[in-house]
């Protein structure tokens, strides 16, 4: 069985053998770009080449890119831990052609890598192709389909709509159809019952998208019309952790050697084992996922803070602390203790992680301790609320009280409910929602309220309301006229 590190190596070496230059991952945290906080796809670092602003130093490149999808159009945060194949931080393996080869090579090399090099059973692979959009005069991507037909039976090639199979950089600029490779990892008996093609693109945890091949062949002009792109671009992205799951015969990304060593240490520290109980498992997955995001962000120079990218990282760390506190019984800082095993696993591929280990541990520990103190204060307050309720013969605490815990002490409502339930009490859900709504209105009405990610100004002013992270984020700051 190939290890994750071997799988990553084999990808870039394969494309090197096809004339690609291996380049390092760009930082995951993007500084000095008002349009994007975090790298969310391999192509981000090549944006200027694709737009024609910079000449390409190499016409063919390949890499493994650290990506983070926790804001804007690509926000997978709420899924993470609950499903088994979306992460906050993940690695995207990619190969690019800038005005060099196009669909034929992109498709046949993808196939060669998966089937000939990695020996994946072709019977389990499916490809989607753009079905066309007659309204725009766009035909089905018969060209891509014709190349897939050389490798796959017709019923493994599936039409996809504009949403899934046509990629646009923004309202204008390079765009084109894409083909996605999906893999069916279910056991034989299940595959016999329902064919994989019926589950492609249906959020099935064992029939998943692994690789997106984008064929940029048009330029969309300001009037919305399309013209052929002079230098066509191939842009591919494959989910590394998903590929590891497929290669290692696992049912979840978390069962691979990318996550298992971390999960093992979490279990040792928390006195539990993975796979016993769904709630504990979710918490272990959340912590294992989030520690990577936080460690790599700090490495890239983004510490947790109260604004913008730093606030996003702080919220992710607090999400991990809350899951660990609630479901793993961790009342003291412990996430920082996972850093050594992470460095051991990933420090080879990402030496910057190893170089910053001491700083990473120190920052995470301090951040955990500060947040746990707030949680403790909140818990003392909640204890008093519960005693008062009981003394008054009530079985419920008010929405206002639950909201105070949420707003001032960072208690998510489910944590409050959990503690109440342990004490035979409940919270007024409706009342809580009313307070939540009131607060949103207050925020909207207040002048120049810093909400962390954006600032809202007064009536009549043109307001900067945030960054518009369209897919692969080329775009443009978003402004709104306040009525
Ligand atoms: P999905 O539909 O599963 O959310 P996507 O279509 O949003 O994936 P792309 O933007 O096409 O993903 O990115 C290329 C590849 O990166 C995907 O085929 C997938 O393998 C992987 N990928 C995307 N999002 C994640 C994530 N949150 N965690 C891990 N891998 C991911
Ligand atoms: Mg997605
Ligand atoms: Mg998709
Ligand atoms: Mg995709």
From TrEMBL:
GO terms for molecular function: alanine-tRNA ligase activity. It is found in: Cytoplasm. It is an enzyme of class 6 (ligase). Keywords: Aminoacyl-tRNA synthetase, ATP-binding, Cytoplasm, Ligase, Metal-binding, Nucleotide-binding, Protein biosynthesis, RNA-binding, tRNA-binding, Zinc. It comes from the Bacteria. Its cofactor is Zn(2+). Binds 1 zinc ion per subunit. Residues 2-483 form the Alanyl-transfer RNA synthetases family profile domain. The keyword rRNA-binding does not apply. Its EC number is 6.1.1.7. It catalyses: tRNA(Ala) + L-alanine + ATP = L-alanyl-tRNA(Ala) + AMP + diphosphate. Consists of three domains; the N-terminal catalytic domain, the editing domain and the C-terminal C-Ala domain. The editing domain removes incorrectly charged amino acids, while the C-Ala domain, along with tRNA(Ala), serves as a bridge to cooperatively bring together the editing and aminoacylation centers thus stimulating deacylation of misacylated tRNAs. Catalyzes the attachment of alanine to tRNA(Ala) in a two-step reaction: alanine is first activated by ATP to form Ala-AMP and then transferred to the acceptor end of tRNA(Ala). Also edits incorrectly charged Ser-tRNA(Ala) and Gly-tRNA(Ala) via its editing domain. Belongs to the class-II aminoacyl-tRNA synthetase family. This is Alanine--tRNA ligase. It comes from Phocaeicola faecium. The gene is alaS. The chain holds residues 1 to 483 of 872 of the full protein.
């Amino acid at each position: 069985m190939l290890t994750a590190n071997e799988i990553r190596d084999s990808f870039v070496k394969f494309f090197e053998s096809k004339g690609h230059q291996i380049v390092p991952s760009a930082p995951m945290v993007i500084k000095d770009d008002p349009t994007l906080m975090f790298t969310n796809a391999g192509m981000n670092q090549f944006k200027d080449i694709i737009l024609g602003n910079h000449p390409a130093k190499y016409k063919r490149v390949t890499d493994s890119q650290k990506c983070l999808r926790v804001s804007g159009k690509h926000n997978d945060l709420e899924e993470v831990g609950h499903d088994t194949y979306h992460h906050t931080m993940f690695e995207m393996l990619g190969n690019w052609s800038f005005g060099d080869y196009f669909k034929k090579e992109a498709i046949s090399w993808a196939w060669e890598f998966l089937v000939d090099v990695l020996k994946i059973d072709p019977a389990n692979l499916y490809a989607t192709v753009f079905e066309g959009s007659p309204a725009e005069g766009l035909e089905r991507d018969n060209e891509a389909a014709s190349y897939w037909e050389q490798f796959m039976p017709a019923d493994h090639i599936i039409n996809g709509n504009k949403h899934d199979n046509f990629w646009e950089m923004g309202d204008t600029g390079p765009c084109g159809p894409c083909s996605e490779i999906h893999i069916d990892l279910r056991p034989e008996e299940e595959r016999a019952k329902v064919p994989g093609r019926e589950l492609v693109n249906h959020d099935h945890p064992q029939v998943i998208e692994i690789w997106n091949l984008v064929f940029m062949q048009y330029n969309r002009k300001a009037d919305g019309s399309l013209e052929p792109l002079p230098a066509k671009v191939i842009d591919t992205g494959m989910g590394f952790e998903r590929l590891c799951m497929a290669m290692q015969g696992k049912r979840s990304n978390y069962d691979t050697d990318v996550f298992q060593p971390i999960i093992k240490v979490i279990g040792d520290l928390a006195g539990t084992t993975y796979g016993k109980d769904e709630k504990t498992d979710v918490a272990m997955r959340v912590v294992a996922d989030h520690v990577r995001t936080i460690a790599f962000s700090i490495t890239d120079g983004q510490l947790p803070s109260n604004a913008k990218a730093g606030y996003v990282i702080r919220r992710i760390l607090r999400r991990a602390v809350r899951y660990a506190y609630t479901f793993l019984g961790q009342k003291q800082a412990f996430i920082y203790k996972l850093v050594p095993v992470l460095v051991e696993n990933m420090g080879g591929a990402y030496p910057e992680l190893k170089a910053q280990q001491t700083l990473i541990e120190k920052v995470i520990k301090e951040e955990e301790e500060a947040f746990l103190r707030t949680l403790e204060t909140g818990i003392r307050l909640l204890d008093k609320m519960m005693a008062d309720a009981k003394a008054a013969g009530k079985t419920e605490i008010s929405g206002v009280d639950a909201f105070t815990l949420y707003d001032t002490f960072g208690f998510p409502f489910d944590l409050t409910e959990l503690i109440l339930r342990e004490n035979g009490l409940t919270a007024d859900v409706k009342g809580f929602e009313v307070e939540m709504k009131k607060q949103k209105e207050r925020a909207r009405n207040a002048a120049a309220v810093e909400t962390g990610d954006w600032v809202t100004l007064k009536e009549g002013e043109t307001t900067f309301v945030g960054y518009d992270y369209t897919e692969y984020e080329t775009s443009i700051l978003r402004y709104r006229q306040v009525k």
